Every structure is written in C-alpha cells, then in structure tokens.
Amino acid sequence: MLQEKRIALRNSGLINPESIEDYIQSGGYQALAKSLAMESSLVYETIIESGLRGRGGAGFPSGAKGKSTALTCEDCLKYVVCNADEGEPGTFKDRIIMETDPHSLIEGMLIAAWSIKATKGYIYIRGEYYKSIERVKKAIDQAKSKGFLGEDILSSGFDFDIEVKVGAGSYLCGEELTLLESIEGRRGYPRIKPPFPAQRGLWGVPTLINNVETLANFAPIILFGADWYKSLGTEKSHGTKIFTISGDVNKPGYYEVEMGMKLGDLINNFAGGVKGGNEIKAILIGGAAGTFASKKHLELPLDYDALKENGLTLGSGAIIVLNESRSVLDMLRSILSFFKHESCGKCVPCRLGTAHILSVVESLEKSNVGERESIFLNTIKQAEIMAKTSLCPLGQSPILPLKSAWTNFSDEIVKS
Amino acid sequence: MDIKEILNKYPKKKEYILEILHEIQDKEPCQYLSNDSLKQVANHLNVSLAQVHGVVGYYSMFSTKPRSKYLIRACKSPICSLMGGETVIDSVKASLDRHFPDKSAQANFTIEETECLGQCSESPCLMLNQAVYGNLTPEKIDSLILELKASL
Question: Is residue B22 within 8 angstroms of chain A, CB to CB?
C-alpha cells in the first residue's frame, strides 16, 4: 500500500496552526536549539549532505546556496528571504504550509539565518494569500513572545527578526531577483544575473533566497540528520516532495510523497484516478512553466533526473491531469495567454514573443493541415530564441510546454 | 478614511510602498487608489508621483479606477479555464441581471479577471473581496449573489 510521507507537511492538519504551544509540543523549535549549538557552517554542510534541492521549481541544491552566501563575507550584513510568492498555475503547496503549519516555515528560516549569520529575514507572500499572510504574521508574533525571534535567541547571542512583505498580483515577482526588486518597493522587473543574490541581493548585500517548502524541510533534516533524509527518495533525488494535483481527477489535492513515486501511482492511488471513467490523455507537470507528459510516462518515477531524461520537468510539483476528451492545444493556448499577460515587457523578445507565439498557436486551426507542422516547428524555434534572449525564467519558459506538447502530441496538434 | 493615519504607521521608506497601497485600497469603500491618495503616498515617501504611479500600474491588484463594495475576481488560470472557469464571469453577470434587474443596483459589484489564485484543487474559483469560493457552479454563484443581495 502506497503511503504519503509527510516531512514538510509533518504537522499539517494535526495541530492548531494558530498555536505555538501545539507546534512546540510536536517537537517544534528543537531543531533551532540544536542548530544554535552547532557551528553555523555545520548547518549548511548538513543541508548540503542531505541533498535537499530547492522546491520552488528550479531545483538548485539548497545547501550550496547557503554556503555560497555565507562565504561571500564573514561578518557583513546578510539577509534571508523566503519566496512565498506562489503563482505558478496548479501550485498551492506553499499556501498549505503557511495556512496549516506556519511555524515550520519560521523555524526553517531561523535555521537558514543562523547558517549564514543573517540578522534579518523577509517573507514575501503573494497578495491574494490573505489567510497565509494572517497566519504567518501571527506566528511571527508568537515566536517573538516566546524568544525564538528577536535578540539573543535562546541565550545564544544570535539575533534575528522576520518581516512579512506582501505582493500585489505579479507572477513574475516569484522569480528571485524580481522578488527582491519588489521588496525594495519597485516595479517587478528582473535584474541581470550574475551577480547572484548570494553575492549581491537585497539592497546589494548577500541574500539567501529559499522557497517555503524548502525551508519547511530544514528543521527535520537538522533534527534527524542528513543520512536520514538521504535515505528517502531516489539515488539522486532525495527526500520528499509535495505534489498538488488538479484537473480531471477524482480527488484533487496535495500529497507529500517520497521522490521516485511513479506518476501513475500518484494519480491513481492518491488522486483517485481520472474523473469520469475516461482515460488519461495528458499530464501537465510543473504548471504553466512545465511540460506535457503522455500516458506512456505514467510508469516514470517522479524525480528530477528521470523526468529530465524524458524531456520533462518536475518544476514546482504541480500535476494537472487532462482526460481524453480534452484538447492539448486548448491547454497550450491557455498557457501561452498566461505568459503573454504576465510578461513584464522589459526584454523585447519576451514582450513581443509571448504575444506573437500565442497568436500563431491561436490561428493554427485556420491554416492548412499540410502547413501546420512547419508552422509549429518554426514557433518552437522562435521560443528557443526568446529563451536565449530574455533575462528571466518567464521568457525562458514557453519553450517547455511548446516543445513537450510537440514531442508527445504532434499528431493531435497537426490534425486538430 | 484618514490616509494620514495609515501613512504614519509606516516608516518613510520606499520599501513600504506596497503595504501602504494595499492598506489604503483595502480601507477605501470603493477599493481603489485615488490620485489624491497617491499624491499623499508620494509626499510621505519623498518620491515623485510618477514613481508611485509606476508601481501602482505594474501590480494587477491595484486599481486607479473606483471599484465597488464587492470586488469579484474570477480566476482565468489554465486550470480554472480547463475546469469550466470560462463561464464563471457569464454566470456572475447572469445572476446579477436576475437579482438586480435595475442595472444601477449592480454598481455595488465590480468583476475582474485574475491569474491563478492557488486554489486549483477547487477549480473553478473566484475571490469575493478577501474570501475564496471554489468548486463553482452556476447554482453556487447564484446563491452567493443572493446572499450578497441580502446584506446590501
């Protein structure tokens, strides 16, 4: 019997999210005490050893990012920023963590802060997440009153404070450098990188940016050790991942499972299978900035490498199921229209490209069947150019659904 | 609403601009940012009015046009669209026509589209002011509008 393995969601639904006592009683803030008794460098070394990778979508090794930030300068001002600007269509895992167990995020942030000796942290939450904002703010106040935040935390001499910043409806601000621009009070335009935030981040100082789910894993890793975390998942993708499943399934929702679970098992055993007794046609993995998988991929293990070998991405863990009555091309249009809307317009190739690609795909049905293949392949080429000439992941994303839709559903695209 | 009172809660630093704009907009009965309030924000933060407009214009949650007591934001994300979201706005409009045949009474409602609200397991969904309503059907939308009518 396949079961969930809850680490980031360890307390979700089991404790009162508005009670710090509940969190402490379930072992909360013990990892913080353990971290503060450790050399700060040992904390990021433990995270490196665990193999934890960023759960926001990019999958960058989390410990390495911490180490790089810590080593940029010894005793200078540094920041920790939590990216809670969850806007990837189909993704709502960070919201669940913030609504059901906000202290797991705060403890993770404290541990991250100690590892790089940062004294100030910001949690940037998207503006539409009213309940998350309320819960996290309340949790911060409680942590302050218990001495987990503020000055001389647990008599260790370590000072750290967290402020909540609120977004205002921009998908792009979920991109780490754009997010920093937004925290500084500007329009959300991406910055040129390098320099990476580990070198020059918020207000030009070294900044460690991590996703909510990533940080929620920090406390258990410190408490139970890197070997424990490494023993979960697959050889190269360690630990667990929260998948948010939507679309044509009987039980849409969020499920945290070990890395390596088969895509088909996740859909059938957890999400209750395809709705309406229909067969699966397509699975969009990773949201709009994700890739289309087909029925033949149902046996694939969900881990970073196995998906990559098949031209797919894990992304943020969004799984959107389309039954056989659905049109892949319609979904693709919907995605391309999203990118057109969210392009900030700073890079010309993205500003013009997202609109152009949408218009071509929208009018595909009006063209001759014989010409559709060359039209679509040409569009893929244009999306590739756009990816190479845009500063941030938005311009680099449309190629993902376009290319994977073509690889797996070219027959349908040509004939529909 | 006393804008001065809101402004005085925040340090005179540009980093607080989004928080300030949110609070002013939330407290304004018509849920928008007037040019006069933006001027006061610019003064408080010691930046030009153009800069404030630059920020306001970028973020889709802000509006410089008056909205209404009830702001309905229908999710038009790829997932909600897949699950029938494209009919949500039509259902809202039909329901308003049914319960408010006198169009002037519909001024209490502003309908907007929004990108993914992160409620995808309950798609299609909409946001009414700060609350989310999911698994929408025309019947569910109708009873929501009826509830709002009673509270007007």
Answer: yes
